[in-house]
Amino acid sequence: MADYQELVQLVEQANVHPSLGLKHCQRVYNLAKELAQNLALDDEILYTSAILHDLGKYPAYALPNVDHSLRSKGLASNILQKQMFSPGKLPKVLDAIESHMYYSEPGRSDEAVYLRDANILDNLGNIGIMRLFCLVGQDELLKTPEDAIQRARTFAEALPGKVATKAGRRLAVKRREEVLRFLAGLRRQTAEYSMI
What we know:
This protein has two domains: 1-108, Hypothetical protein af1432 (Orthogonal Bundle); 123-196. It is globular and about 60 Å long. It has helices at 4-13, 22-35, 43-52, 68-82, 90-98, 110-121, 125-134, 145-158, 166-189. Helix 6 (110-121) packs parallel to helix 9 (166-189) and helix 7 runs antiparallel to helix 8. By secondary structure, it is mainly α. The protein contains nine helices and no strands.
């Protein structure tokens, strides 16, 4: 069994922006459970994957020119083997971590599929908008509020089609509408975004 306290401490000690850190991991875990409420997912696999899925993205652990999913998978493998994590469950955790991004194919287990859907959905809706605007000036791709607006628009159009599960697709439609309503209101209130 994973030492959850140690895993949480690894994320907390990374000193990463709150919209990317532990609370994001907790939201992804909780949303994956909610989406899969009619399935019997292995909670240890799901929770461990959720906590460690972005570890390779955090500055304390990232490597230049290495996809964070692969870096996270490598870090998780080392950490969990040292913890004597169940050898039967380790491949499922590593698969879920490697396949958690929208540009990846869904993983092979239900835990991996639902983790990926939850991670995608955390980039949509009100929470997705909040995360984007919180990261302006903190992320190299989000230098200005206009960058966040463009990313929100892109996510609203592209990400719902990446969601694999029926429950996830239903929620993606709702969260997409939240984003589009927000952007329409912002556009009206800022003279076509000119006063942001």
